[in-house]
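Structure, all two chains, one model.
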Amino acid sequence: MRGNLLYGQSGGPTAVINASAAGVFLEGLAQSESIDRIYGAHHGVVGILEDDLFDLTEEDRTELLLLKQTPSSILGSCRYKLADPEVDETDYARILEIFQKHNIRYFFYNGGNDSMDTCRKVSHYLAAKHYECKVIGLPKTIDNDLVGTDHSPGYGSAARYIATTFMEIYQDAIVYDRGQITVVEIMGRNAGWLTAAASLAQLKGCGPDLLFLPEKPFNLEQVIETCRQAYAKKRILTIALSEGVRTEEGKYLPELDADLAVDAFGHKQMGGAAQALVGILQQHIPTKYRYIELSLMQRCSAHLASRQDVEEAFLLGSSAVRAAISGSSNVLLGLKRPEQGLYRPEIRQLVLDEVANHEKTVPLDWIKPDHSGMTQEYYDYALPLINGRPDLVLDEDGLPRFARLRLEPVRAQ
Amino acid sequence: MRGNLLYGQSGGPTAVINASAAGVFLEGLAQSESIDRIYGAHHGVVGILEDDLFDLTEEDRTELLLLKQTPSSILGSCRYKLADPEVDETDYARILEIFQKHNIRYFFYNGGNDSMDTCRKVSHYLAAKHYECKVIGLPKTIDNDLVGTDHSPGYGSAARYIATTFMEIYQDAIVYDRGQITVVEIMGRNAGWLTAAASLAQLKGCGPDLLFLPEKPFNLEQVIETCRQAYAKKRILTIALSEGVRTEEGKYLPELDADLAVDAFGHKQMGGAAQALVGILQQHIPTKYRYIELSLMQRCSAHLASRQDVEEAFLLGSSAVRAAISGSSNVLLGLKRPEQGLYRPEIRQLVLDEVANHEKTVPLDWIKPDHSGMTQEYYDYALPLINGRPDLVLDEDGLPRFARLRLEPVRAQ
């Protein structure tokens, strides 16, 4: 059926979520028989609730293409959680009202686990109210923790950033004629996919000596002993540490550090896991320390995006539009890896109810028990995802050229 | 005169110091009429004192070329300070002994201010002992604080990293529908050149709202008020902060934070300037905060090096060999910018005594008094230095390909 298209972004930004946006917008414009106007929600579902939408129909096509190299969420993001519709229908009724007002018949929501839950709830509500609208979820998460899809757009680029940057940090960390322990903190609250990516640098001889993923309980005494032995052997140690590691009792490292150091009680700005681990280790292994947080850079470094990742993100966006026009709804578009042979992912549709609120972590048997790295299975999994560099357009001064959209507000028709 | 060449690296690594090494090695190999063998000192002057030298004469030429894209100091670095020769001659006598043993007639030392002082002292000692050896210093510092040269290799690449990364962080930091203050900490203990580079991102509309350089005293009350006003106006604030900012009394931010927060007394691993500023600001401006340290990445990100910087570093290395063969000694090879017209730097020789132990800071009138940015003079200065991306050779898996040297120890002739 003919109508308008609405696209929204939600959750943490990535280097390639705007590539999916570009796919949706450009395919939407190409499908003028089914789609009238292309709208974007400002700050995801919050923009829908506030009737704060952009009309992207008249944007310059070249600028839309430049979204493929523009990091973060161009329309703004949110972390808004919809209520359970059985408890409170307010938000849903409002969403329906806005969809009716703007004749939204195709809705695409791009995000991670929480966003797929939002997508699922909206999809069910609209169906229950007999409002015809195709609802499709698009995956996005550097954490790579969405189930049902082989991997999620955003992961390959973050992994390429982490592997490359770890190689460079390693080169720097080994340079002096003295002992040193360098702890690099990597994102991932429950899943260690990103920390695992540091192991790819080992393939070049520039990787971490030890990796700690949140999938395995962080036994402090054992960790100290492991570090002590590794330090005694190598004298210059680099460690990849997930921000999400925690003890059997579920305590995160910064909490643990605060427990151990009574004087630090109430310190205003709590440091991260790497800072805490360094604080603990230096009580046991006297040497020079450095901690590094890869922070936002690991999710927004479009200049180091993986070409494979960018193209998959774009393809998922454009495929979602075609799938919706063909009648698909209440699905997430995921990626399926061929059983064997060359890596050439296929697109698959997953029912939203099957994927929302689940979490995919790293298989335990892919993590070497002595924390020294990942197994070949992980390399086989990850290497195709980080491959290739995008043909970045730079400004004449050598700095990145991000998309410049006009982002006109939607006017009443 | 015919003899062997010795090259050493000292001080903090950069993305392009190995490009200078490549220039020295490849030109040294080409000058076989004057130069017999090419040696490298392991960990700079420490390797000389310990007779720990590499013989690079038989290295694969392609690998030597790959040094142009290999970050950090390939031979290892040091921070060793030679004694005043009038107080203690021991080290100098040892250096002379090693130079005689290995017939070193051309000595190149690549580093920053302290390294040029080492270079000067060695040069004078050898001359006083009538040992004929041409001694040339090669500049290297991301801090850009060497005097006499328009700029130092390493700065352009670090500046390109900082400007690009700030653009990406900015895109990420503005994404949510809520207030936030993001403080990005940038290296530079006394000179604000690197922090100034964040202002280049302003040219793309993705730059910091406020910059704090160490050249200007950091008046805490004024800073809080400036931030308060800027936050009231913009609600999402990004700040570029030099690690070296300090109060009129000379206190660095982490010291200041510890003073203010009695509970943090004795905290084991002191955080950086950004963490401290956030700790202070959040007592005055309630909002969400994030602090980011660009840490080692800003000095070792060869993947984001400036092509101009790489080529200048290489050219300085090869020019140093030619200059030494032509008889130059006791000089630093610096860069001179043409008075007008296209940026096309010339190489100039500076007497080591004129440059060692001085420090070049950012001109105060290039810093806008309201901390909102830099003047056009800075843009004109910096933009040519960050320009161009190197043609990086990647491995087939998409990760960087660093030089693989055999680094054979020097054998007795």
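Chain A is about 35% helix and 15% strand.
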